[in-house]
């Protein structure tokens, strides 16, 4: 399954166009490697997604062409969630 479609179907990102943009900006990695929107996602892959000051790492548990809102979270396991502090420049 394409990365952008997985991110949308799993509801990690709400819209496929946003998933594509995030991937194009180099803010998604599959198993530690930069990922493009068309990158293939397989069960067992680890995805790291950078959302502004937060990064989320998940493991892909299942692939599905479509899913109900209640079942979307079953498609992945949350491995870590980190907040990144920003340094304020004081000049």
Describe, in short, the structure shown.
InterPro entries: RqcP (IPR025490), S4_RNA-bd (IPR002942), S4_RNA-bd_sf (IPR036986). This protein is α+β, with helices and mostly antiparallel strands and 91 residues long.
3D structure, described in words:
With 91 residues, the chain is α+β, with helices and mostly antiparallel strands. It has a single domain (3-83), classed as Structural Genomics Hypothetical 15.5 Kd Protein In mrcA-pckA Intergenic Region, Chain A, CATH 3.10.290.10. It is 18% helix and 29% strand. It is built from two helices and five strands; from the N terminus they run H-H-E-E-E-E-E. The chain has helices at residues 3-9, 16-24, and strands at residues 28-30, 33-34, 46-51, 54-60, 76-83. It has a five-stranded antiparallel beta sheet with strand order 2-1-3-4-5. A hairpin with a 2-residue loop joins strand 3 (46-51) and strand 4. The longest helix is centred in the N-terminal third of the chain and has 9 residues, at 16-24. The model has no long low-confidence stretch (mean pLDDT 90).
Write the topology of this structure:
Layout: H1 3-9, H2 16-24, E1 28-30, E2 33-34, E3 46-51, E4 54-60, E5 76-83
Antiparallel strand pairs: 1-2, 1-3, 3-4, 4-5
Helix pairs in contact: 1-2
What is the C-level CATH assignment?
Alpha Beta
Total count of helical runs of at least 4 residues: 2
Mean pLDDT, to the nearest integer, reads 90
Q: How many distinct folded domains?
A: 1
Summarize the main sheet. Answer: 5 strands, antiparallel
Instruction: Give me the Rg, rounded.
Output: 14 Å
CATH fold naming: Structural Genomics Hypothetical 15.5 Kd Protein In mrcA-pckA Intergenic Region, Chain A
Total beta strand runs: 5
Rough outline: globular
Strand order of the largest sheet: 2-1-3-4-5
Strand percentage lies at 25-35%
Q: What is the helix fraction of residues, given as a range?
A: 10-25%
Structural class: alpha+beta
Uncertain regions spanning at least 5 consecutive residues: none
